[in-house]
Amino acid sequence: MKRLVVVSNRVADLSRSAQAGGLAVGLADSLRQRGGVWMGWDGQTLKYDDQPEPRIRKIGTVTQATIPLTEQDYAEYYLGFSNSVLWPLFHYRLDLVEYKSVFLDGYRRVNAKFADALTSVLQPDDIIWVHDYHLIPLAAELRQRGCNQRIGFFLHIPFPPPEIIAAVPRHRWLVESLLEFDVIGFQTNTDLGNLQHYVEDHLGCRMEQDGRIRIGKREVIAGCFPIGIDVDAFVEMAEKPNEEVAIETQRRDILGRKQIIGVDRLDYTKGLPDRLRAFARLLELYPEMRKTVALMQIATPTREEVEAYVEIRKELEALSGAINGRFADFNWTPVRYIHGTVPREALAALFRASQVGFVTPLRDGMNLVAKEYIAAQSMEDPGVLVLSKFAGAAEELREALIVNPYDVDDMARNLCRALTMPLEERRERQAALMKRIRKHDARHWLESFMAALERGETQHAA
Ligand SMILES: O=P(O)(O)OC[C@H]1O[C@H](O[C@H]2O[C@H](CO)[C@@H](O)[C@H](O)[C@H]2O)[C@H](O)[C@@H](O)[C@@H]1O
Ligand SMILES: O=c1ccn([C@@H]2O[C@H](COP(=O)(O)OP(=O)(O)O)[C@@H](O)[C@H]2O)c(=O)[nH]1
């Protein structure tokens, strides 16, 4: 088996269990199983950086190769082009795109830096797998340095329709850079279809039924590879007794109360304000629900230097305060809002102890929290997943209660349906959903992508 070299903006700290972000979780789960090299930014910013060689560290089966970024790189490449241009653009939020040409310069510079660092660790037989929107030009940079190994790319976030992509300057360069990879993977068929429309409308190419695109003399394979989780590992975590969660759950049981849980990075794509409004609407529409249910929302800090993230935090804190001010009683707090990072073990126990998983992004590549919530449920008394139709996960998890995250009344009605759903129906839905997350788990994601990258297999091959 060839050595796998994975490259992503950030590498996860494999010695810790709290990882804010699905990319880190999904890759860590997959890479631990196969072993290999993981290269990326070490999370540090320096004034100047004169050390081109990556720092090497071995953790179990994985060798980590990390590089620092300069303060200028961080501002222009990470906060700038990646998170103030591509992130809002790819999540259909043209109103939040802040394009500056220095951001694009920084983006190109850091991709060249990644290519230099990577060249120093590559061996001729390596197979390279690049992750996410931060590194779209990396294949072209590597080719310029004489790298002729096969290079794959996986986009963890949505790929929007051509009318949206076309709103950003240099969009043609961006998509042509993407097409320098040998294999391009998306989370959903919708994303794949959007690439097809772009190449047909703007580049005059055709995408075949099996995802092959011919560009000049080269052939690129595009496909849908939904990311999954290590289901058994998560089930095990959820079944492990957690004293703090158990005490809290006993108290709720005595009082006959239920819990709705939401866990997200504090990102404007996650639909958090409307989620809180939907919970308040539940209490308005169904007064009998008051004092019988609470919403626990864990909101993990992320990208706090970007203005849009400062705004969303303020909005959320004001909203949770207002809902509690309006509905709380001396012995009942309707919203428990936690601004912090919680270890995955604790999350697993919290998911199991919650009767509803409330996952309502306005747009999301996949959303691993949705899959983790399913994995954490017991078959005896499972909870219900209420899931946005705009999460990538909704293409697969059809037995969840699927909602429109822009429609507060629809979410409130479905919350009520979830909280009152008969046990038999909950069990049926849970069994079907469990089958689905097992079918497309972390191993399947890795293996199906590798089949395309190593052997040129397509998703719809006859
Ligand atoms: O590293 P940050 O800037 O703090 O952001 C964390 C990660 O967020 C995004 O995750 C995406 O990947 C998940 C797994 O495939 C997917 O389920 C989710 O829908 C996506 O939002 C981002 O794409 C990563 O690059 C970031 O590391
Ligand atoms: O406090 C937290 C918040 C989130 N997560 C994990 O971070 C991932 C979030 O991934 P998801 O795909 O849902 O969204 P993303 O943040 O990548 O957009 C999930 O595995 C969560 O369990 C965590 O470990 N601790």
From TrEMBL:
Catalytic reaction equation(s): D-glucose 6-phosphate + UDP-alpha-D-glucose = alpha,alpha-trehalose 6-phosphate + UDP + H(+)
Q: Which InterPro entries match?
A: Glyco_trans_20, Trehalose_OtsA
| Single annotated GO MF | alpha,alpha-trehalose-phosphate synthase (UDP-forming) activity
Q: What class of enzyme is it?
A: transferase
One Pfam family named in its UniProt record: Glyco_transf_20
Annotated pathway? Glycan biosynthesis; trehalose biosynthesis
Domain of life where this protein originates: Bacteria
| Catalytic activity, EC | 2.4.1.15
User: Keywords on this record?
Assistant: Glycosyltransferase, Transferase
Role description: Probably involved in the osmoprotection via the biosynthesis of trehalose. Catalyzes the transfer of glucose from UDP-alpha-D-glucose (UDP-Glc) to D-glucose 6-phosphate (Glc-6-P) to form trehalose-6-phosphate. Acts with retention of the anomeric configuration of the UDP-sugar donor.
Quote the PANTHER family the UniProt record gives.
Answer: BCDNA.GH08860 (PTHR10788:SF106), TREHALOSE-6-PHOSPHATE SYNTHASE (PTHR10788)
Q: How does it assemble?
A: Homotetramer.
Q: What family is reported?
A: Belongs to the glycosyltransferase 20 family.
Question: What is the name of this protein?
Answer: Trehalose-6-phosphate synthase
Q: Taxonomic lineage of this organism?
A: Bacteria, Pseudomonadati, Pseudomonadota, Alphaproteobacteria, Hyphomicrobiales
